[in-house]
Known about the structure:
This protein has 422 residues and is mainly α. It has a single domain (3-406), classed as Growth Hormone, Chain: A, CATH 1.20.1250.20. Helix content is 80%, strand content 0%. The protein has 19 helices and no strands. Helix 11 (226-257) packs antiparallel against helix 12. The longest helix is centred in the middle third of the chain and has 32 residues, at 226-257.
Amino acid sequence: MNQNKLIVFFVFVVFFVISFLTNILGPLIPDIVVSYNLSNSLAGFLPFSFFIAYAVMSLPAGLLIEKYSQKKIIIAGFLSALVASLSFALLSTFQVALASLFVIGLGMAMLQVVINPLLREAGGESNFAFNSILAQLFFGSASFLSPLLYSYLVNHIHTGDNNVIISLFNGLVEKNTRWISLYWVFTAVSLLMVIVTLVVKFPRVKLKEEDRVDMGKSFTELIRDKYVLLFFIGIFCYVGTEQGIANWTSKFLEVYHAQDPSTTGARAISYFWGLMTIGCLAGLLFLKLFDSKKVLMVSTTCALFSFGIGLFGNVDQALIFFPLSGLFLSVMWGIIFSLALNSVPRHHGTFSGILCTAIAGGAVVPLVIGALSEVVGLRGAMTVIFLTLGYVLSVSLWARPLIRNATIKTWKKRRSANSVEG
Length: 422
């Protein structure tokens, strides 16, 4: 395996761990609400605390790359997650939960800012959309597994099971807060990734000047470009959509369909991410056959219909169509991000930092849903997702990339042209 392939694979593993640490909040929210006697509005501050860290850290993290190596930034990101997870596992109060999620978010923001330009550089510009979707495959697979792990732990700890792992958790967590066992798992995973990162020999992947973050002239030039703002909103709306569905579906199923959050609710979220993983596989194929804008348009339209049926249908429809929406969301992040970076000729590092700041949409949209649910009910509040998906759909109409995704058709044209020149 050459050095560039090694770094691409390592980036995929980092995406897996980011997802494993990030997308468990949805299944946990009903348990956290009960444990701390929270309203939906206060519960909305949990994802807010995590994702607002992206707004705080994304651009500074880009500047840190200029001073320190990518390896040191990745280690710092995982150390942040390690310290925060361990702190909450040891001192499990709501205030510490908010602080812990914020610090984990800071670490994940550092990782995201490093790995996206690194993936683009190591994998090649024309393959960036393809590799981004492949990274989402790893991302989605971790999100599929973490709710299943949560369900297994809360249904086996303090129930008389005597295997080594469960016996260990029996001594670490109380019976009424079994969900905290996941933070011990996060601590172990973060420690493992620190060790792995220390051991892995990073290849000499030198980012081009355009892939560096510059808060001076480059930043000023970018924020004056209307397309930068439009793509920023696109990422904001996508992440808000993803987290709005993932964080509130379990609670929705409990409130409107009397489904148990630790079993049915957790499975629904697991299937949501699992279908997102399957969607990534399909997306890899479609991006080799069709222009990414067309793929985005079709997938967003299908997501709107699927989410609508889940929101307003009966319990059987909700259990099918909420998870199914993950299938159609799967390609959106990679396509929007690649369309954005491929729509500007330079300053990709700074632009990547700006786009990662937009991940704060995952903070704002779930919080808005939680607050609105106190006034119009959770079903009414979740209609906000129609607005965010509507904006994502608009991206497929106005995006004008300078570099289009490489398809079989363009590859054949390029090969034919090379043959003629030869």
